[in-house]
Amino acid sequence: MIPELLLFVALGGAAWAQDAEAAEEPDAEVDPLAPYRVPFDVLAERAIGAAAQPVEFNWRRKTAMVAATGGHPFELNNFNSLRAGGLGRFPVNRAIFEVGVSYVWVWDSPSSELLALTPYRQPSRPPRLELDLIAGLPVAEGVVTSWPRRFPAVQMTVNLYGGFRYLVYPTGFRDLTLREAARAVVSPTLTDPERANLEDIRLDAMQVDPARYGVMVGVGNDLYLQQGLFLSPRAMFALPLLAPVTETEMYFQAEFSLVLGVAF
Amino acid sequence: MRAAAALLSLLALGSCRKVPLFDVNAGFSIADASWFAEEETLFIFYNVSADQGIGDPSVIELTYTTDDERVDWTPIDQFATVHTHVPVDCGETSLCGSTSIKLDIEPRDVRLRLRYHVDGELTLDPRTVFNVIGPGPAHLNRSLLVYGVFDDTNTWVQWRGRHHFPTIRNQEAEALGLRRDVLIEDQGYGIGQVGDEDNPYGYGGGCGGEMTALGFEALPFQERARFNPEQLPVEAASSPVVCSSATVTDAKGTFTTTAVARKNPEVRPAFPELRSPIHAARRVPFFLAPCNREISPEHAEMQRQRLFLEDEPTFCIDDWADPAFVDKLTEAMSDAVEDARVYGEDMVLVIALHRDITGMAEVVQEALTRLVPAERHRATPRLAGAFVFDSIERSISGTELNSSTLWCPATVDSLGLSLACAVIPDIPELELGPLSVGFLPILPTRAEYLDFLETYSARLAGEITSSEFLTPEFAANVDHADLGELGMVTFFNDEVFSAEIDDAFSYCAQEDAQLFMFRTEITKSDLLGEVVDALCAEDPTNIICTVVTQGILPIELLPTWHSFLREPNYELGMYWEFPYLLRAEYQTYVAGAVSAFSLSVPFGVPIDAEGSYGAAKWLEDSFRMDLMLTQCDRFCEHPVFDRAEVYQVTQSFRTDYAATCYRPEYPAPGDDGFPLDP
Fold first, then answer.
1. Which of A152, B190, B229, B473 lies at a 20 to 30 A Cα distance from A63?
2. How far apart, in Å, do the first and last CA atoms of chain A sit?
3. A120 near B CB under 8 A
4. Chain A closest-CA separation from residue B44 CA (Å)
């Protein structure tokens, strides 16, 4: 919506300027409709991106998309981690909503192995599942050519992302009663029984971060082929908006990921 | 929008930091070592905790020096253990355990430490507590005592091991994983005296006499407690002790000595229940009023209704001022009582006094004083007491009549049970414009009643629908100790319980319990009376003096009394302060009236109620004493179990429970394992 407004303002401003110039010519025949006449090339300019969108692939008309995702979290600590999973995407009006689940592998780095020999520990998160609920807002899109030239033109959409990430430690729920599990699911921090269970899977130098969920924002672009295949590189960042309640020590976290999928 | 963007920017900048490192704050809560010369064993106990981060890679290391060698820092799990040490879980943030190492020479410089990681160089070195226990008797100088206890039937023996370390408690050693092998053999019963202040468990102290072999199978166990699979025979019922040879393992091999199990004190309620039948007393009615003039017909009618005297002829009191009137009234009441006595029931004088002169009440009170108190000591059928429904509030506090007569309505300064029918000084009445709401007590004064009738109606004053006077039946052999205005102690039917010389008693105070008294040959003797008279000469009205002068004592004193004087019989009596309970059911009203101009329309909401006046204890005809007074007749010096099932080896029924509730809980066959034994 905002890009279109900007476009209209820019084009509308140009048309008004032309009208004013025409009115100042003294010899011109007086035409009562003159103020309302607009040259064809101006009208064509106005229609670009509004009346008709030059598209290679109209993702808004698709019902759903499924994709595989892989990423590299940067948690700013000494542990290594990678994530991979699946994503469902659902265009709704002018936005796109995503529901995803990923598994995150965590392993030691040489630094963390050395850290384990000391009486110091560093907050991190053991291997886990991550559930994502993300909304994407297209801010720019168009048909772009690709390189090398033998590849066809693609539809590119630049999206801003905002979403909610919920962490699930399956080991943490081991031997919990139904009541304890229910309490744990809604708690913003890991409960004591969960922490006790996670002792078995945490790395030696790791202090298990207690946060259960957080807020993510990011930016990325979607490249759609005419056949429906799409590729979406993106960068996501954790915002510590919920840190006061989740008691996390990992305020900042970035994640670069690549999404590859198909639209139906 | 700009503000939000700025806030987000600040937040992002502030959070752009790398994840910090945190100290795990590890610390030892236990780092103890004890070397037992008798066992040639070094015991190690440790418990180290941290915020997070010590686990399997962390190790506890030990070093020590002897005259023969110096053992450098070595993970303790690399030492061979003398005893069994099971892995223990002390929580996700703790590392704890124990070990036992064979050392035939006294070690020196024994130290423990935590290596944070088995491959690391950093360690945490605590202050290690090290004790040396040299040679000596088994009950003091060994790390495990063996003793036995009985179940509640005194026929099943549970053998127990008890860890004995200088700085580690029994259950703590168990919690840190130490398990000991015990073997019980050669069990026998006998009459030996075992255990003393120095060796309360009697471990290694011998069997104290001849024992009769039980022929039980050998009993091995590694828990802290195990029941014999066989029950003691009947022949062992009178034997106080079961003795055995107990074998424990140590670094030298095995060690065998005697272990004993002492029977629990045999205890029963001294007098489980005191019973006295309760009956409804026969009414002996009187309606006293002037015959030559009329005071208030409405009020008189109400008085008759309250006491069910509608058909009762009026006893005229016009000549109340005549000196002979008291005799006349006393004689009339006495005749009525004697006429009613033929029915064989206890009686209550029920008197409605319709009067407007104070002197009339004094005359009636004088007549009752001549008749009622004297009847209190008689057996059924007797005149239990009197109930007077007067026209004006009055108090009989401080008079001889107060302990046998209810005088209603009473003044608010009345003492004793008459206070129950005291009038409320100012009956609150709610008035909202033309609407007024009021309430009348069921036993009102005439002034209250007539004032009520001015606004409301006689129907809204309510009515008593039924009433009864409950009083205890006194047997022909009843005996009383009269405490005057305080009340009476009654020995209903020669309730006596016996005690042997070496019996012991325990008194347990009970909530809402009745007050019981006892008397013995000594308390009734003249000698005690003289002593009491001498001691109470200065203040004979003191309550204690009043009670003791009557030759009775509170039941609380019985355990101590018997421990000193060891009398064979105790008579049991019950204190009561009033001879009957008037229980009345009545209907009353929350009365209302709406007034407009000169017209008033009354209305009311009926309420069914029940009132009790007198001594509430006469609602029951039996009084439990089983929890109040318990009597031990055998093994009273033996250790006891408490209510938490803990074996209190230094306490005995005889010395520790005279004034303390004795509520033991015993282990039962099948309760093997790890009993509470701090």
1. A152
2. 25
3. yes
4. 24
In this prediction, residue A4 has a pLDDT band, given cuts at 50, 70 and 90, of very low
Instruction: Give the one of B11, B20, B120 whose C-beta lies nearest to A118's C-beta.
Output: B120
Measured at the alpha carbon of residue B666, what is the angle toward residues B662 and B669, in degrees to the nearest 5? 165
Phi, psi angles (nearest 5°) of residue B462: 85, 180
Find the CB nearest B22 among A121, A199, A204: A121
Give the closest of A75, A116, A243 to B19, CB-based.
A75
Identify the burial level of A80 via C-beta atoms within 10 angstroms of its C-beta, where 0-12 means exposed, 13-18 middle and 19 or more buried. middle
Distance from CA of A113 to the nearest CA of B (A): 10
pLDDT for the residue A261: 95
Lowest mean pLDDT among A41-50, A79-88, B211-220, B374-383: A41-50
Residue-wise over B560-585: b if at least 16 C-beta within 10 A, else e?
ebbeeeebeebbbbbbbbbbbbbbbe
Query: B210: pLDDT confidence band, cut at 50, 70 and 90?
Result: confident
Phi/psi at B630 (5° precision) = -115, 150
pLDDT tier at A136 (50, 70, 90 boundaries)? very high
Q: What percent of chain B has pLDDT over 70?
A: 91
Q: How confident is the model at residue A5 (pLDDT cuts 50, 70, 90)?
A: very low
Taking CB atoms and an 8 Å cutoff, what residues of chain A touch B91?
196
* Identity of the residue numbered A6: L
Catalogue all structural domains in chain B, each as residue range(s) with its CATH number. 27-133 (2.60.40), 140-265 (2.60.40)
- Tell me how many degrees the CA angle B454-B455-B459 measures, rounded to the nearest 5: 90
Any B CB within 8 A of A76 CB: yes
Q: Which residue of A has its CA nearest to B7?
A: A241
3-state helix, strand, coil split of chain A in percent (to 5) is 25, 45, 30
Q: Which residues contact B585 (CB under 8 A, 6 or more apart)?
A: B464, B465, B466, B467, B608, B609, B610
Q: Give the model's confidence band at A49: pLDDT under 50 very low, under 70 low, under 90 confident, else very high.
A: low
Q: How many interchain CB pairs under 8 A, A with B? A: 83
Average pLDDT over residues B44-73: 90
Q: For B403-456, what is each residue's pLDDT tens digit?
A: 888 888 887 666 555 556 656 555 556 666 667 666 677 888 888 888 888 877
Question: Is B408:B421 a contact under the CB 8 Å cutoff?
Answer: yes
Name which of A217-231, B149-163, B588-602 the model is least confident about.
B588-602
The CA-atom distances, in angstroms, between B674 and each of B96, B154, B219 are 19, 20, 16
How far, in Å, are A25, A38, A160, A197, B210 from residue A30 at the CA level? 10, 16, 51, 87, 144
In this complex, do A249 and B20 lie within 8 Å of one another by their Cβ atoms?
Answer: yes
Q: Are strands B383-394 and B347-353 parallel, antiparallel or unpaired?
A: parallel
Q: Which fold has domain A59-263?
A: Porin (2.40.160)
The DSSP 8-state label assigned to residue B235 in this structure reads G
Q: Which is more confidently placed, B597 or B19?
A: B19
Q: Which of A31-35, B48-52, B541-545, B548-552 has the lowest mean pLDDT?
A: B541-545
The confidence score (pLDDT) of residue B673 equals 84
Number of other residues whose CB lies within 10 A of the CB of residue B586: 18
Task: Write out chain B residues lying below 8 Å of A118, CB-based.
Answer: 116-117, 120, 122
Closest-CA residue of A relative to B26 is A119
Residue type for B423, please?
V
On chain A, the residues whose CB falls within 8 A of the CB of B8 are 239
Return residues 216-255 of A near B (CB < 8 Å): 237, 239-241, 243, 249-252
Residues of chain A with Cβ-Cβ distance to B55 below 8 Å are: 199, 204
**A124 contact B CB<8A:** yes
Closest CA to B47 of B61, B30, B33, B34: B30
In angstroms, how far is CA B156 from the centroid of its own chain? 29
